[in-house]
Known about the structure:
Blueprint: H1 2-6, H2 10-27, E1 35-38, H3 40-45, E2 57-61, H4 63-66, H5 81-114, E3 118-123, E4 129-134, E5 147-153, E6 161-163, E7 166-167, E8 181-182, E9 185-187, H6 189-206, H7 215-226, H8 229-234, H9 237-250, H10 263-266, H11 277-292, H12 303-323
Parallel strand pairs: 2-5
Antiparallel strand pairs: 1-2, 3-4, 4-5, 6-9, 7-8
Helix pairs in contact: 6-7, 6-9, 7-12
Amino acid sequence: MAAGRTGRPAHLLEKDIWVVWALSAIYSSTLAEKLTFKGGTSLSKVYKIIDRFSEDIDLTYDIRELVPDLLQGGNPIPVTASQEKKITSAVRSRLPEWITSSVIPVLENSLISSNAQAELRVDGNHSEKLIIDYRAVKTGTGYAAASIQLELGARATGEPNSMHKVDCDIAPVIEGVEFPVAAPLVMAVERTFWEKATAAHVYSLQGRLRGERYSRHWYDLAAMAKTGHAAKAAGDHQLAKSVAEHKSVFFAEKDAQGSKVDYFKAVTGGLKLVPAGAALDALESDYTAMLQDGLLALHQPSFDEIMETCRSVQDDVNERAQDGK
């Protein structure tokens, strides 16, 4: 019944409850003021910009909290390459320790108090991911697993941000049942746009995708264009350059020819959002898999529509940057 009313498959409604449960556990704890909720799930759960079901929780732990001793004058952006290396090394060392000592106990206590059944495990190349494996009542195609991934980073401040309320998708259609609610500190949409746009820019220049489940970023960019948030972000040149500065220091990349990706070029008239060749084909295959598992509940634009919108966004952003508007 709830699946029919919401347009979402039952296994995704179940997963959404766990997403909100995790946010509720974190943001009703002492961690609340130190973590910023961001990414696609914030676009879906908070800003209602995307119809896509977003299953992962991206969180930024304020760099000023984790490595204050390594910041010069409290500046979150390193001024030298050696400082960046020290900060990155410290983050990779301290973040897993913080996850183990601070985040896991919060979730474990919440599991006990709510009498919920799930297992916690640490994952990721640098143990920066925390996985909640829950006992699923419903299953889908397997594209969306019965687990919630909390991906934690600590090389930014998470700003600009503000507090918002988050509810379960199923709550409005089921009466008499108390579902989890949360009030996370959430990154501004405009910063999320630039985070995703510069990521898509890198993938487009590299001509390859790093595994599966990446088509969601292009869907999100197209959705932000439909709501006017992309245009608003395109006009915030200071924010764009702030993201470029941050990524230039902490997320240096090389293109398909081995040249260093210039993030500042991306935000000053050289943004590229549409990949070509095998990378485009891989993106389309991933998008098809996402559709088959029901992650888009209502309006399901074709892959070509999304790429056409992203190309328009690309052209508009570049024109605005060149004109200074």
